[in-house]
Design goal:
It contains 11 helices and 16 strands. By secondary structure, the protein is α+β, with helices and mostly antiparallel strands. Helix 5 (about 145-155) runs parallel beside helix 11 (about 330-355), helix 7 crosses helix 11 (about 330-355) and helix 10 (about 320-330) packs antiparallel against helix 11. The longest helix is centred in the C-terminal third of the chain and has 26 residues, at about 330-355.
Length: about 425
C-alpha cells in the first residue's frame, strides 16, 4: 500500500476546476486515475452549533452541541487547497492546487448559520483593495488584491477616466472551519514537497498559488459590483449613499436580467452605472424567482444542506504561501516572498494611477427650467484672488445679472479670476458656505 501511494504522489501536478449548472465552482480530479473514493466518504464530527440571526446591527446567538456529518468533498478537500486572486469569482479568490493531506483531526467545523450583508464603498480603488485584503486576514500594505480590483473596475468601462466602484455582498454562512494543525507543512503531499525543493520560485507561484487558508467560512455568497465613471460634478459620497440605498433592489433586478446590466446614474451626472451580479453556493436559481431581495435571500439561505454538500468557501483567513515554502526551503521561501511582494507592489502602483485618472468633464445634465425673476445659484470651481482653486457660488437672476460671487469659506464677495466646470443648480435658499 505504501509503495502504491508513493507512486501515486509522483504523478504530474494538475489542478482543474469547472463550473456546474448553478455557476458554482466544482472540484475535479487532480491526478490522472486518482482515487476518488474518499470524496464519497463523510466524517462524523462533533461540532459547536451556533444558531445565529441578525437583528439590526446586532447578532444574537444560542450555543448547543450536536454531531453533524460533513462530506469530505465539501469540507476537508476545500481546506486542503491553495488559493490565488481571481476577479471573476464572487469571493475574489479561486482554488489553485490541493497541497495538503489533512485528516478530520486537523480542523474543527463550527456550525453557525448566519446571513450577513456587507458594503465596500471606499472613496478610492486603492482603499477598496486594502479593505478586501484586511477582510481576508492579510496585511493591507501588501496590496495582494490590487490587480483583481483593477480588473474589476476597468472591465467594460472608460479606462481613460476615473472610476467609482462599490461592492455589495450578502453571505449565507453555514459553518466555519478552523485549522488545528500547528505544523501544516507536515501535512504537505509528498509530490508538493518535492516540487517546492526542485522548482523555481516563479514555478511555485504559478502552480501552487499565493495563499493558503487557516480559517474558512462555508456557505454561499451573492456579490454585486457597481462601476461608474466619475465626472467633475460627482461626489463619491453621493455615489456610495446611492449604492447603499439601491443595492438590494438592483441586485434582485439585475440578477433576473442575466447578472449584467447598465442602469441609470447613481449620481446627478449623465454617466450610466454598470452592475454585475455573481452568485456562488446553494441553489442559485432561488435568485431568479422575480421576487424582492429579502424574499430571495431567505429562500436561498434555506437551500443549503446541513451536511455542507452544497456549501462553498466564501470567507477566509489567508496566509501567504511563502510561510509554508520557508519551512521546506528558507532561501526558496524568501525568493517567493520577494517575487510576490514585487508583483503586488506593481499592481498597487497601477491601481493608484487609475485613482489619479482625470475626471470626466461632463456637466450636470438634469437642469430644470428656471422660473422668471428667480434667484439662481451657480456652483463651480475657480481660481480665487490668491491663485488657489476653490469651490465657489454665484448668485444670479434668471436674466443673467450677477448679484454676488463668494468662494467657499469666505463671508465677503470675491472677484472671480477664472471659471472652470460650471454647474447650474436651482435653489431658493442661499447655500451654506
Amino acid at each position: 500500500m505504501t509503495a502504491r501511494k508513493d507512486a501515486e504522489d509522483e504523478r504530474p501536478l494538475i489542478a482543474l476546476t469547472s463550473q456546474n449548472m448553478s455557476g458554482e465552482t466544482e472540484l475535479r480530479k487532480q491526478w490522472p486515475c486518482k482515487r476518488m473514493a474518499i470524496v464519497a466518504l463523510s466524517c462524523a464530527i462533533t461540532i459547536g452549533v451556533v444558531c445565529a440571526y441578525s437583528a439590526g446591527d446586532h447578532d444574537h446567538a444560542i450555543n448547543t452541541y450536536e454531531t453533524v456529518d460533513l462530506g469530505i468533498s465539501s469540507s476537508q478537500t476545500w481546506f486542503q487547497y491553495s488559493w490565488s486572486p481571481d476577479a471573476t469569482e464572487a469571493r475574489f479568490v479561486k482554488p489553485k492546487f490541493q497541497m495538503f493531506e489533512y485528516s478530520s483531526n486537523d480542523f474543527q467545523a463550527i456550525y453557525a448559520p448566519q446571513t450577513k450583508t456587507e458594503y465596500f464603498t471606499e472613496s478610492s480603488l486603492s482603499k477598496t483593495s486594502s479593505k478586501l485584503s484586511t477582510s481576508m486576514g492579510l496585511d493591507a500594505s501588501y496590496g495582494a488584491f490590487s490587480g483583481s480590483i483593477e480588473v474589476t473596475a476597468t472591465s467594460s468601462t472608460n479606462v481613460e477616466k476615473r472610476q467609482m466602484m462599490a461592492i455589495f455582498q450578502s453571505r449565507a454562512k453555514m459553518y466555519k472551519m478552523i485549522g488545528s494543525s500547528l505544523t501544516p507543512e507536515d501535512r504537505l503531499r509528498k509530490s508538493v514537497r518535492k516540487f517546492i525543493v526542485e522548482r523555481s520560485s516563479d514555478a511555485i507561484i504559478e502552480h501552487l498559488g499565493e495563499f493558503y487558508a487557516s480559517e474558512m467560512d462555508m456557505g454561499g455568497i451573492i456579490r454585486t459590483i457597481f462601476r461608474q465613471t466619475q465626472t467633475s460634478s460627482d461626489e463619491h459620497r453621493q455615489f456610495a449613499a446611492s449604492v447603499t440605498a439601491k443595492a438590494t433592489a438592483l441586485t434582485a433586478s439585475v440578477q433576473m436580467k442575466g447578472g449584467v446590466s447598465t442602469e441609470g446614474s447613481l449620481t446627478n451626472s449623465g454617466e450610466k452605472v454598470r452592475v454585475t451580479v455573481t452568485t456562488q453556493g446553494g441553489d442559485s436559481y432561488k435568485w431568479l424567482s422575480g421576487l424582492d431581495f429579502m424574499t430571495n435571500q431567505k429562500e436561498w439561505a434555506k437551500s443549503f444542506k446541513k451536511d455542507g454538500s452544497n456549501a462553498l468557501p466564501i470567507g477566509f483567513k489567508m496566509l501567504p504561501i511563502w510561510n509554508i515554502v520557508k519551512k521546506i526551503d528558507l532561501a526558496k521561501g524568501n525568493a517567493v516572498e520577494s517575487t510576490l511582494k514585487k508583483k503586488w507592489k506593481s499592481a498597487k502602483t497601477d491601481l493608484k494611477e487609475l485613482d489619479d485618472k482625470p475626471l470626466d468633464d461632463k456637466p450636470l445634465t438634469k437642469v430644470k427650467p428656471v422660473p422668471n425673476n428667480a434667484r439662481v445659484y451657480i456652483k463651480g470651481i475657480g481660481t480665487d484672488s490668491q491663485g488657489h482653486k476653490s469651490e465657489y457660488w454665484m448668485a444670479k437672476k434668471s436674466s443673467g445679472h450677477l448679484l454676488q460671487c463668494r468662494f467657499k469659506g469666505q463671508k465677503s464677495q470675491s472677484r472671480l479670476e477664472s471659471h472652470v466646470w460650471p454647474i447650474r443648480k436651482k435653489t431658493f435658499h442661499p447655500p451654506h458656505l
